[in-house]
Amino acid sequence: MTAADLAAPRSPQRPARRGVNLEKWGWLYMRVSGVLLVVLIFGHLFVNLMVPEGGVHAIDFAFVAGKFASPFWQWWDVLMLWLAFIHGANGMRTIVNDYVQGKTVRTALVGVIIVVAALMIVLGTLVVFTFDPCAGVFGAFENPDSVLYEVCQAAAAN
After folding, report:
1. Domain 23-157 grouped into CATH 3.30.420.40
2. Domain layout of the chain by residue ranges
3. By the 8 A CB rule, do 143 and 104 touch?
4. What is the pTM of this model?
5. Shortest CA distance to 131 belongs to which of 81, 75, 64, 58?
6. What's the DSSP call for residue 5?
7. Residue 102 pLDDT more than 80?
8. Transmembrane ranges (predicted)?
9. What is the C-alpha to C-alpha distance for residues 65 and 131, in angstroms, rounded to an integer?
């Protein structure tokens, strides 16, 4: 190997690509979403573990139903869900791109990651926004012993 065979330092090996740099945007997303997730998760933990009297023992179906009755907490949890799944899927995509050699297998795995993350985001969002605490209290599963029975009965009367 001669000096002529070596590329000059800091010279481009190939022409610069034009267009959107998805790797750069993925890298930026990981940093921004990581910071937001820290705030959202610690806020979530504080409200669920420190605020209610009794700590973790106060968390039951009625507690969750009360939180999901508020649009603020619905959006808080949905934002946390979306950021976490996209953050995790992007991290898994990076790992697959780093360690999987075959292009076909890499493409298939990244496709599976995208489909699973999208499915979980859709299902999680549906659960948060369509949550009905009275669904199991009346109807075929009527349960007069439920903590929510009186509340749901009053809500049904209105």
Report:
1. no
2. 23-157
3. no
4. 0.75
5. 64
6. G
7. yes
8. 27-47, 73-96, 108-131
9. 8
Looking at residues 81-99, what average pLDDT do you find? 95
Task: Please determine, for residue 137, whether its predicted confidence score (pLDDT) is greater than 90.
Answer: no
Query: Average pLDDT for residues 22-31, to the nearest whole number?
Result: 92
Share of the chain above pLDDT 90, in %: 52
HEC secondary structure over 6-62 = CCCCCCCCCCCCCCCCHHHHHHHHHHHHHHHHHHHHHHHHHHHHHCCCCHHHHCCHH
> For tokens 């869900």, what's the residue?
81
Q: Which residues 6+ apart lie within 8 Å of 137 measured at CB? A: 143, 146, 148, 149, 152
For residue 89, the one-letter residue type is A
Positive/negative CA dihedral, 98, 99, 105, 108: negative
Rounded to whole angstroms, the Cα distance separating 85 from 104 reads 24
Q: What's the CA gap between 147 and 5, in Å, rounded?
A: 78
Q: Across all residues in the chain, what is the average pLDDT?
A: 86
